[in-house]
Design a protein that fits this description.
By secondary structure, the chain is of the alpha/beta class. The protein folds into two domains: 6-186 and 227-253, NAD(P)-binding Rossmann-like Domain (Rossmann fold), CATH 3.40.50; 188-225, no CATH class. It is built from eight helices and seven strands, in the order βαβαβαβαβαβαααβ. α1 packs across α8 (228-238), α4 (104-132) packs parallel to α5 and α6 (191-204) packs across α7.
Length: 260
């Protein structure tokens, strides 16, 4: 379905971003990877995408807190592949603290990377998409783009902002062949979350699975994590012809978190 098209996925050297890049590559898209990490590990992933899926893959080390680097990455993608058809804004960071204790530099960093970077990327990508009359913009938000949790003021504010940004972009591009949607994951099993589970199990004497269920139950009815591959599959669907009139929507993939 995406053969011959090009997708840029920010924050795609690991986790949700990498899984989404792999899903798009499996559907035929050429891929521009982006993110931080070990150079050798990134090159292994890049080369692996090309070998496994028979597509072209490149890598940009653009810092998503720097607008000029974001714009340059978009321009490089368009020059390298001839177009940018699918933009997935996934890059994100987190910091946890009470509002009165929240460091100002952490607030600025979370807003810059989790929210402003998506604006800068969309702003740079939109002219080409409108000119070609086809584009898919997918913003990775969060359950925290729809509801709040304590001690996550910057993250919640940024993810709510992402959902609002999604709606405005969708309205503005509604008749230009460009759609914009948000994906709102709940609990995803990352190395950081696994550490929380391990620590809980050790502190309470629970089994690892019992600690896992206890953690999940704090937010969602379903006692299983959302898989990064599931998020990637949803992104592929949102790029399909079947989703051509789906725009401005926030898709929960959260085990029932926000249904409560």
């Amino acid at each position: 379905m995406l053969k011959g098209k090009t997708a840029l996925v920010t924050g795609s050297t690991s986790g949700i971003g990498l899984a989404t890049a792999r899903a798009l590559a499996a559907d035929g898209a050429n891929i521009m990877l982006n993110g931080f990490g070990d150079k050798d590990a990134i090159e292994k992933e890049r080369a692996g995408l090309e070998k496994e899926f028979g597509i072209k893959a490149r890598y940009s080390p653009a810092d998503m807190s720097k607008p000029a680097e974001i714009a340059a990455m978009i321009a490089t993608t368009e020059k390298e592949f001839g177009a940018l058809d699918v933009l997935v804004n996934n890059a994100g960071i987190q910091h946890v603290a009470l509002i009165e204790d929240f460091p100002l530099d952490k607030w600025d960093a979370v807003i810059a990377i989790n929210l402003s970077s998506a604006f800068h990327a969309i702003r740079a990508a939109m002219p080409g998409m409108k000119q070609r009359k086809w584009g898919r913009i997918i913003n990775i938000a969060s359950a925290h783009g729809l509801v709040a949790s304590a001690q996550k003021v910057a993250y919640v504010a940024a993810k709510h902002g992402i959902v609002g940004l999604t709606k405005v972009v969708a309205i503005e591009a509604a008749n230009d062949g460009v759609t914009c949607n948000a994906i709102c994951p709940g609990w995803v099993l990352t190395p950081l979350v696994q550490k929380q589970i391990d620590a809980r199990a050790q502190a309470t004497g629970q089994s690892n699975r019992e600690a896992e269920i206890a953690l999940l139950s704090e937010k969602q009815p379903m006692h299983q994590f959302t898989k990064p591959e599931g998020i990637g599959a949803l992104a592929v669907f949102l790029c399909s012809d079947g989703a051509a009139s789906i725009t401005g929507s926030a898709y929960s993939i959260d085990g029932g978190w926000v249904a409560q």
